Amino acid sequence: MAEIVITEFMEQSAVSSLAADFDCLYDPRLVDDAARIHAMLADCRGLIVRNRTRVDAAMMDAAPNLRVIGRLGVGLDNIDLDAAAERGIRVCPATGANAACVAEYVLLATLHLLRPLTLATAPMLAGDFPRPAFSNGREIGGRVLGLIGGGMIGREVARRAIPLGMTVLVADPMLEHGVQDDGSEVVSLNDCLSRADAVSLHIPLTPETAGMMSGAMLARMKPGSVLINTARGGIVDHAALARLMRDGRISGAALDVFDDEPASAESLAMFDGIENLILTPHIAGLTEESNHRVSGITADQVRAALEEG
Fold first, then answer.
1. C-alpha distance from residue 61 to each of 35, 38, 187, 212, 265 (Å)
2. Where in the sequence numbering do the catalytic residues fall?
3. pLDDT band at residue 1 under the 50/70/90 scheme
């Protein structure tokens, strides 16, 4: 049986570095076979997962020698942290490793939603020349970007948005109201929603944040504003969002995360026919560069934990 079990995609160079010193089982198909994962854990000392593997108390009990869980990413809602603490298992997220590429995704989505140039391609190929319909796009210079959550990723977004001429507001109960060193301003959640032309979510999924962006909360957003969610799907009421978009109250949205993943066509049917919408399969934090950073950091953390005994 393997000392380290890796259930989801990890860069081969990082896998090879661990395999040079430990007996490793790397099979990214394991994520879809929980029973097989349990069967592989008898001698496991290190478990490496992304966001789809549910590491609950039962899985930890199947691994009596487990010492460390490496998370290829930063969200920890798929890991029972209390159960890990009770068993003395260290949990190591790859903090900061994908912050830059998520920040770039947010700005790319904001640019597209405010000025959706790619929507002109289909009518152009069909022989139309829809200049009037695409002559009222909005520039991001002078616009207000609202960040719900002022952690590492939020700060990376602000660092890129402010030089582009955006005013950045941050709503985070852990931060003191006022202007921060980077030029962003910490305000109340209501103030952030009502003033922002684009709202981007950067908070974890917890019992307190689940369903936080309800229909009532979404309705507080500035008329014509857009929403970007790269955090977790369970934070946003998608049905309410779709209704507000059809009504024109919210003019666009980019959703990278969903209540259940992989998201099914049935679960997304509410968005059928809505044009200014970007749906991506939980890839905001995935680029060539970030994959190498995340995998390398996770491999180093798991190695260190196992070498400490």
1. 13, 9, 44, 33, 35
2. 232, 261, 282
3. confident
